[in-house]
Structures are given as structure tokens and as C-alpha cells.
Amino acid sequence: MQITSLRKGVLTASALAIGLTAANAAMAEWKPNRPVELVVSAGPGGGSDIFTRVVQAALTKNDLVETPLIVVNKPGGSGSEAFNYAEDNVGSPYKVYFGTQDAYVLPLGTKVNYAMKDLTPVASMVFDVFILWANPKASGINTAQEFVAKAKENPGKVRVAGAKAKDADETVVTLVERAAGIDLAYIPYKSGSEAAIQVAGGHIEANTNNPSESLEQWKAGNQKPLCVFTSARLTDKTVVADGMSWADIPTCVESGIDVKDFVQPRTVWMAADVPPEALAYYTDLMKKAMDTPEFKDYTTRNVQITKFMTGDELKTFLAEQIKNYEKIYADNNWLLPASQ
User: Residue 216 belongs to a domain with what CATH number?
Assistant: First the structure.
């Protein structure tokens, strides 16, 4: 009897192993067989758009995909349009969504047509630092100290542009207001690049965004970085413009604005109920994109913090982020009653 039981155990184990091998093989073999939409929660030219198009180029140029990748911008509703689209396309393995913290922050303070249960997190790939910018030629502001002084002299009249309402850009502006004891007028645009253009044109006094969205304006002499929201200065000493490098930008804390380590994740999502094999495919694909020369150049050029997170690590990070933003939104009186 013992021999018979042992043989049954061996047969059962063998059958299980064969089943698992077949399942793993199916997951490894899944690939899209028609064009895939890369849906961006921001307008053309913004940080999320640039991020998405870098991923598209990296995957295409290095022959890591066999089907076309089509970038689709859906910036409406501060980016909620993109995630509403996910809610409308449950289970689709042919749509991948690119955003920031907007995916999980928007439902906290805005009535939207989706919830976090409608999204499947794929990966967080990099973090953008945030910088306070001005156009000295138009505003007369050359330093963060001068920015604060002007705001104190003109309560509620110094305008600061940013991408979207009640998102990262406006959030950091409220943190600056509290830290410096000033009152600013926040003006939202569809993307950080639009906000940068307004400052470069002298229509708005300042803006806050990530480096990629104002880099070209800085090179052209139409914007100047006043301070960076990190606890230590950036390390890249490559001269960008006017003899100034990223490492020459003072931290906002150095400049008397006690806001540090405010960074923005670049995140990738799919809709709810997508096939596990499709999720595994795109997770692996994003990791491969990060290893390409195009993506490495992108992160270096924009002084980003590279950190790939997926699975349980990403879920833990998202839970912590949501908790932090709930507190900030409550302090700003932005938190919807249902979120409290």
C-alpha cells in the first residue's frame, strides 16, 4: 500500500509539474497580434507624453515588439479621461496606460468615472524631481528668495503655472505656500510643457514641473531654475545653459522654502481583469525598455531617479502614496467626503 501511495504521489506531482510548465509556457508565449495603444494621461509635449514616446521609441527601435505601438493622448479632466478609457475597456490586453501619481490621486479630490479597482498596476519606472522656474527677463525673479519676496509683496497675485488641477504641480505649490507663508495664484494647464511656454512667453510669473518640460526653454534663455525640491543638490555637473549645470541649482530648503524630496513617479497601468499572461508580457517589456540606450539617455538627460517597481513592491508603494496624499488633500480641503 505504501508503494502504491508513493506511486500515486509521484504521478500527481508529475501531472502538476506538467500543468505548471504548460501554464508558464502559455504566459511566456503570449504576444499582441495587432496594434497596441499607449494611452497618455496628458497632452502632447508634457512629461507623461515624453515618457511614453521614449518607451515607444525604445521598444520599436530595438525590435522588442512585433506590432505597432500607437500613442494616444487623453488629457481631459486633468488626465481622468485616460483612466476612464481603462474603465471602458475592462480586460483589454491591447491598451496600456501611462501616467504619474494622477491615476491614484485624481479619485481622492475629483469626481471621476473610475476607481482604483478599475486599474491594474504594471510598473513604476522612474521618478522625476520637481523644480521651481521663472523667466527673469519678464518677471524680474532671479532666485527663490526673490520669488518669495515678490509673493509677500503681492499676496495672491503672483501666478504659478502647472500641469492639471489638484495634481502634483498644484500640490507642491500648496506646500510652498505653507512653508514660505505666502499666497500664490495657481493656473492649471493640460501639460507641463504648456505651463512652461506660458512662463517663457512672460504671461505667467513662475511654474513648477519636472526638468524635461522646461529643459529646452532653459537652453533658449526663456526660463531659469530657481530651486529643486530635493534634500540634496542634483549631482549632474554638465553645463546646460548660461554656464549653469543641474548641480548648480540650489535646493529649495537652501533657499528658505522647506519643501524637500517631492518627486513624481512615472507609472504604467492596464485595465482591470486583464489576462495574467498579458500583464506578465507588458511588465517584462517595460523592464526591457529601461535597459535600452534610448531610455538610459532619457533618464540621464532629465536627471531622473531610476527605480523599477512591480508586483508587491509596487502595491506597497502605491498604498503609502495614497495615504500621504490623503493627508495633503485633507489639509488643502480637497479630499472628497467619500475618501475621508
Answer: 3.40.190.10
* 157 in any annotated domain: yes
Tell whether the torsion through CA atoms of 335, 85, 129 and 193 is positive or negative.
negative
Q: With a threshold of 0.70, does the pTM exceed it?
A: yes
Q: Does the CA dihedral 269-270-272-274 come out positive or negative?
A: negative
Residue 254 lies in a domain: no
Asked, for residue 22, whether it belongs to a domain, the answer is: no
Q: Which tens digits make up the pLDDT trace of 198-207?
A: 999 999 999 9
More confident site: 162 or 21: 162
CA dihedral 73, 163, 327, 86 (to 10 degrees): -10
Say if residue 140 is in the same domain as residue 122: no
Quick check: 227 and 131 in contact, CB under 8 A? yes
- From the CB of residue 296, how many other CB atoms can be counted at a distance below 10 Å? 13
Residue 282 lies in a domain: yes
β-partners of residue 129 are 263
Q: What is the model's pLDDT at position 47?
A: 87
**How far out from the chain centre does Cα 320 lie?**
16
192 shares its domain with 291: no
Crossing angle (nearest 10°) for helices 102-109 and 80-88? 100
**Partners of 97 in beta bridges:** 39, 269
CA distance 158 to 16: 67
Average pLDDT over residues 98-103: 96
Domain interval for residue 71: 36-128+264-339
Helix/strand/coil percent split, the chain, to 5: 50, 20, 30
Specify whether the CB–CB gap between 126 and 289 falls below 8 A. no
The pLDDT tens digits for 220-271 are 999 999 999 999 999 999 999 999 999 999 999 999 999 999 999 999 999 9
pLDDT value, residue 338: 66
